[in-house]
Every structure is written in C-alpha cells, then in structure tokens.
Specification:
Layout (H helix, E strand, L loop, with lengths): L4 E6 L9 H15 L1 E6 L11 H15 L6 E7 L4 H13 L5 E4 L11 H9 L3 E5 L24 H10 L5 E4 L5 H8 L5 E4 L9 H9 L4 E2 L9 H9 L5 H22 L6
Parallel strand pairs: 1-2, 2-3, 3-4, 4-5, 5-6, 6-7, 7-8
Length: about 270
C-alpha cells in the first residue's frame, strides 16, 4: 500500500547548503527519494539551547526564508524560549498569528512543567497552533555511588514534565518530542494524558516501538517524525514501515494524525490544499 507521509520533525541544521533556501531544497530532494510529501521544519542553521530574543528571531527568520519558496511542501514551527516570555509571545504573534507558521517548538532552555510556559501555551492554544515539546529520559549505567552516569540538561524536560504541562492546558494539542528517547518509559508516562501525542523520532529504529505506542496510546495518538538531519529519513521511516500494525494504522501515523491536529490552524489561515 502506498502511504501519504508528513514528517513532523525536521531541521535545516546539519543539512548541506550555504543558505536556508539551499538547505530546504536539499531536504525536499531527500524527502522525494523516500516518498515524504510534507515536512515540518523548526530552528535555524546553527542551534542554541538557550537563545536570546535576538537569536530566536534570527533562527525563525532563517526558517521563514527556507519556507519562502516551498509553502506547498513544508510547514514552519516557531522556536521559542520560555526564559524570555515577552519576547516569545511577540515571536509567536509575528510568526504564527501574522505569519505562515502553524506550530510551536520548545527545546531545553526551561523544563516545561514550570509556570513560565503557561502564557506561551495559552496563546498558542488560542491560535490553534500545534505545540512540540522536546523530552528526554537520560538513562545509563549506575556509578559506584548509585547515581546514573548520565543526566538531563538543567532545562531539559522529561515526559513527566510535559504531562504536568498538558494537565494545566487540556485544550492544547501537545506532542511529546522523541517520546522521551527511552520510549518504553515515555509511552507509559504519557499514556493517561489524552491531549498528549507521541513523536516517534529520534531514538534508534528499535523493533517494537511503534507497536507499543499504538497498543498503549491508541493509533490516533502516534505520529511519525524523523529528526532529520540529526537522524536519517530512512531509519525513522523503518519504525513504521516495519511495524506489525495494519496499513490503516500506518497511514494514521504517517500523516493523518498530524493532519487532524493541524487542520484547524490551516483552515484558519486559508490553506486549502493539504
């Protein structure tokens, strides 16, 4: 069965090219090779984990520039930093309310269970924007003192943090980025919070990930993404293509779930061909 595929999770950083347009054209050429119809793109050519207001604007401008010739193939999410709430709200209005972007990207500057995110999430929900929050469970061997040898960055959220955020904002559509990396823990962490969705991107293409997410969350809460260029399209597509689930479920994961979440804002912006 041929599938229609949208990729939730793409970056222009790490892609060859001297300009955002060149990098976007390269991404689309690669997407064409593996049958991906549309890409969601966020963050600029060089990444910052704790961007200043000026850096936020620069990175968002680079994404806008990358999208400028490819509105039929890509959607943009605005990159925000909850350590700068006022500046983030201005960027949200500039890029989503008054611009072409349709979602919000939050990374590792501040853990998302904190109240500083609330004005951003409220405004994004008013605009019907999809919210993507990076999450990770750093896990590794124990030290001699009984501590994990790896730990999350100081501002890096876990799936438990995004559950707390989603509980405060039940009308928001929030995607748990990477499903925490350690997906067996991540799927269980978000299971009861029904306005949270699992992003399959980022971890190794381990057998059983998609099947577990579908079994525990339901097929309508699982979304394909690649995290390209940090990962490859092919390795992440394999998680769904190779999963022991019906083709109708694969189509939900590959496009239909994300399309359903994005339909309100796309219609509000007058986008007809999606």
């Amino acid at each position: 069965m041929p599938f229609t595929i949208w990729d939730l999770h793409c970056h222009i950083s790490g892609v060859p090219g001297a300009t955002p347009e060149q990098r976007m054209a390269r991404l689309i050429a690669l997407a064409d090779r593996v049958g991906i119809q549309r890409l969601c793109v966020y963050m600029g050519m060089t990444l910052s984990t704790d961007p200043s207001p000026e850096d936020m604007r620069r990175q968002n401008d680079q994404v806008l520039q990358a999208l400028s010739h490819h509105h039929d193939r890509a959607f943009g999410f605005v990159y925000l930093n909850p350590r700068h709430v006022d500046a983030s709200l201005k960027e949200l209005d500039r890029c989503v309310r008054d611009g072409p972007m349709v979602g919000v990207k939050l990374w590792v500057a501040r853990r998302c269970h904190e109240a500083e995110l609330d004005p951003i999430i409220r405004r994004a929900t008013e605009l019907q924007a999809v919210i993507f929050q990076h999450t990770w469970f750093k896990t590794g061997p124990m030290t001699a003192e009984g501590r994990l040898s790896w730990s999350n960055f100081p501002g890096e959220s876990t799936p438990f943090d995004v559950v707390a955020l989603a509980r405060r904002h039940p009308k928001a559509s929030i995607i748990c980025g990477h499903t925490g990396g350690n997906w067996e823990l991540g799927v269980r962490a978000i299971r009861a919070q029904t306005n949270l969705y699992a992003d399959l991107a980022g971890s190794d293409p381990t057998n059983g990930m998609t099947e577990m997410a579908v079994r525990e969350l339901g097929a309508q809460r699982v979304i394909y993404g690649s995290d390209v260029a940090g990962r490859s399209f092919a390795s992440q597509l394999a998680k769904v293509h190779g999963a022991d689930v019906p083709d109708a479920t694969k189509q939900l994961i590959f496009r239909d779930n994300l399309r359903r979440l994005m339909t309100p804002i796309l219609r509000a912006k007058g986008v007809k061909d999606f």
